[in-house]
What does this fold into?
Amino acid sequence: MDKFIFSILLILLASCSSTTPADCALGTAETIMDQHPDSALSILNRIDPSELVSDKSRALYSLLITQALDKNYIDVNSDSTINTAVSYFEKTSDKRHLMLSLYYQSTIHYNCKDFSESLITLFRCYDLANELDDKFWIAVSARKISDIYHENHCVTEESEFAKIALNNFRLAGNPSFINYALHDVARAYHCNGDYNMAITITDEVLDSAKVHNDTSLKMKALELRGLSYFSLDKYDKAYDCFQSLYTSPCASTSDSAYYGIMSFYTGKTRQAIDIVNQLNSSPQLSTPLRHFLNYLFYTVTDSTHKALEMMKGISSDSDSALRDVCHQNLLGSVMEYHQYKSAVNQANLKASRAQTVTIIVITTLIIAILISVGRKRIMRQKALIDEYISMSYEMKKLIEEHPKPSPSQDEIAELPLTSKAIEQTDAQSDNRSHPSLKLLEAHFKELNLLCKNFNRENTPDARKKVNDCVTRIIDSIAADTQRIKELENYANYRHDNIMVKLRSDFPKLNEDYYLTFLFSCLGFSVPTISLLLKKENQKTTVYNYRKRLKQKFREFNGENKDSYLEAMS
It folds into this structure.
């Protein structure tokens, strides 16, 4: 044992670098609890509870130490420790640990014969096990509920929960638990008066006990079988069952008492008297058995007065058992539990309603926001399309305003080489357009057609075509240095070399300012300029450019001041 614990602790220390040793010990104890409850208890006994710094650790320790004691057959009669676990886990979403805490809390109440409180707690445990769909713990809690009903002679409920336990143990697939659950079902049939069925089931239980070499299960099955035969007045068969128990090394005082009773009923009086004499000095013999055994003894020995006293004792035992059952008030416990469930359901319903209202409000807000955003987006897209249409008509205007007469030869000679290309585009020269104007005209036709289609059919595909067209126009104009030069030459041609003069008078201007002035000279509006500068969402920036340019021109004292201001008007 010590070697096993030592090896566990070594593994524990090696794998718990990020938590405290006490927390690691808790994790290890919980891991080995089912297979090695004795080792788990040893580990827990080495933990100093003061080293547990978190509420969760203290709650887990309270649960595990109670569980370990129960699994090592050490009865706990105080619920102060386990209450810590229940109180903590009730406030969390950890249903599994709450289920375990409730089970062991109910076990303590059961040990204290407080069956009413135990039953209420077990119902909560049973419900949690069903929520978790844990077949094993459904069975365990149902078996304990069946035990409580057995103790209080509620045979119908005992039978119902015994069968639930058996079915779920079978689903969980644990043979040992299945065999004992089968015995509990047989016991329920016996208490219900169906002795033949109880005997039939104990046949199966005894076979299982033999296969698994389970002496304890065999003893329990033989006792139940003997009592069922006795209830059917089959005393010889009952005698055989209790003789097997009496001769067993594991025989209990009650087994000896039942053997004595069967000896009386089968006419083995001398043997029965010897057993009575042996047991009368035993403090372990229960009062009801002592009364019944001595009643038979005094009856066969013709001690009528004493036999009557034993009969009074038997009657008093029955009255006492009945008072205990009434005192437990199991029906009141069931009603109390249903009231608790009703309160929980009402609270959950209120929370659910509040949650539903919150979801509806949030959903409504989201829908309103989406609608608002959608409307703004549609309006923004419409405004953008309007700007695209405006841009196309500004292109058209620029094309239409292209002068028909040719410049003089002297004017052509004074212009830069690229400006001569403008003269070649004149219709009176060779009927060909200026390259930039020709490009603008082609773009105008395409964009104008797309915008007309969009106004007729506002679809994502039509919108995409317009956007793609504008992107191509911007890339072919603003992003193409050669096109910018051609547009500058055209502006120079129309406005007396104004771009040449601007670059000479203001050599340090930012390029965006030059372009803003150029596009203004060509007659483009602020929205169109913002598109060409790729600042479609920053029209204020273009307004500021124009404002600053005008300010610079007003402060400028050169001969081109008025020309610049006129071009910006």
In short: Residues 404-433 have pLDDT under 50 and may be disordered. The CA atoms of residues 215 and 249 lie 10 Å apart. The chain is about 80% helix and 0% strand. Residues 2-250 form a domain with the Serine Threonine Protein Phosphatase 5, Tetratricopeptide repeat fold (CATH 1.25.40.10).
